[in-house]
Amino acid sequence: MISLLKKRLRDRTLSAIDLYGKTLSNIENKSNLNAFVHVIRDGDRQAVDSHKRLQNGTQRPLEGIPIAVKDNFCTKGVPTTCASKMLQNFVPTYDATVVERLIAAGAIIIGKTNLDEFAMGSGTVDSIFGPTKNVWCSKPNQWHIAGGSSGGSCVAVASGMCVAALGSDTGGSIRNPASYCGVVGFKPTYGLLSRHGLIPLVNSMDVPGIIAKTVEDVVTVLSVMIGPDENDSTCVDTNLDTNLFQTDFSIDKCRIGIPEEYNCEGLSDEVKETWDFVANLINNFKGTVKKVSMPHTSVSIATYSVLNACEVASNMSRYTGLFYGYRSTNDHKSFDSLITTSRMEALGEVVRSRILSGNFFLLRSNYEKYFMQSLKVRRLISEDFKNVWKSNYDFLVTPTTLTTAPLLSEFKSLDNRTQCATQDYCTQPANMTGCPAITIPVKLSNNKMPISIQIMASNFDDIRLLQFANWLEKKLQFSKIHL
């Protein structure tokens, strides 16, 4: 993957210029998947610069490697729309910190990828650019969803349009589509990567993350993005050293917890069998595998839904059309009329419904009943995780999604709120507590769709999590399965 590309670039069996050109052609040939909403076609100068650096031996860690960016990260001089009419003409004057660091490491930003509007969804179907199609088992009139909200980034990686991509994860928005698309999706510990330039959805849960074909590729990309940022007060200096990542990980010293509460209603038999298969595999290699209880899991999704809506209502209040964003061209007699009409015309139904829900929860008469109670329950959920780590468990292994990727027609049969409550059941607890989580593909289902597993670790234990995931990935060898 990235290591192989880097070797070929160093050995001059492939030039950065050719790689850039081939990547653009590949994106064009697979445009029917609708993974990209904007392709950056003026990277020739960067490709030439990378080619020269590789020739004279001054290459940087990601020299000439094409990487895609989800369209809710600010990119200087390149449209950043959040797949919404509200920001359809927004062109940032600066790069998000993680994007800036990728470019400084020599990566070529190849384009912006599709997402649910303002990242509110689990299918990448609620976008002004239309839905993104899953590359697995895709037929002209019958295809599976990509998952969301980082579906565009995951399809771009799964289909080979790029080797890695940036996504954002608020309640599973990287892990959900990564699971559906059969790629690796990594959500780091909250505070490990800078959120500066990531257009906020839920400030207390949003994290930038990485999608790639392998765990080692994730580590390679992560290594250039870690570090404190004076522009983001939530980004901490942990001195986390990715050089400590070792491929000779020893599983026999690890204790792995299997949370009983994740065996929930709606979990398909195939996903349950895959979960059991992974647990037995770990056990066969002398890892200690035991069931654990996390009693507040069942109320986690309700708590997440309330807090999500409350922070959405707060964050979306900036989009009035007065200073930036879409402004209605109709005649208005008051500022209130202008703001109301602009928001009604520019924001989709899903976004408007979350704003209304959040404002309802935040009413003075409801504040204690919903918002404050949800914060208390969030603390209890976090304590569930802390109790597991205090009991000397190293990792938790759970399903990522309850089923394989549904067909678009099946997904559309339920409303967005119901779909998110179902699809995010296993993923959003990690965002509530801030711990790192990763999903890796395990095998194909009977209908030839990927089934993945999720691994979680204690906060800032990201490197050991990635080591374990890499060990498991090597044993599973999903990468040998071809589309």
From TrEMBL:
One Pfam family matching this protein: Amidase
Subcellular location as annotated: Mitochondrion
EC number of this enzyme: 6.3.5.7
Active site location: 70, 149, 173
Any one of the GO BP annotations: glutaminyl-tRNAGln biosynthesis via transamidation
Enzyme class: ligase
Record keyword Aminoacyl-tRNA synthetase present: no
Principal cellular location given in the protein's record: mitochondrion
Keyword flag Coiled coil: no
Keyword line: ATP-binding, Ligase, Mitochondrion, Nucleotide-binding, Protein biosynthesis, Transferase
Residues of the Amidase domain: 23-466
GO cellular component, one term: glutamyl-tRNA(Gln) amidotransferase complex
GO molecular function, a single term: glutaminyl-tRNA synthase (glutamine-hydrolyzing) activity
Record-linked HAMAP family: GatA
Role summary: Allows the formation of correctly charged Gln-tRNA(Gln) through the transamidation of misacylated Glu-tRNA(Gln) in the mitochondria. The reaction takes place in the presence of glutamine and ATP through an activated gamma-phospho-Glu-tRNA(Gln).
Membership in a protein family: Belongs to the amidase family. GatA subfamily.
Subunit structure: Subunit of the heterotrimeric GatCAB amidotransferase (AdT) complex, composed of A, B and C subunits.
Name of this protein: Glutamyl-tRNA(Gln) amidotransferase subunit A, mitochondrial
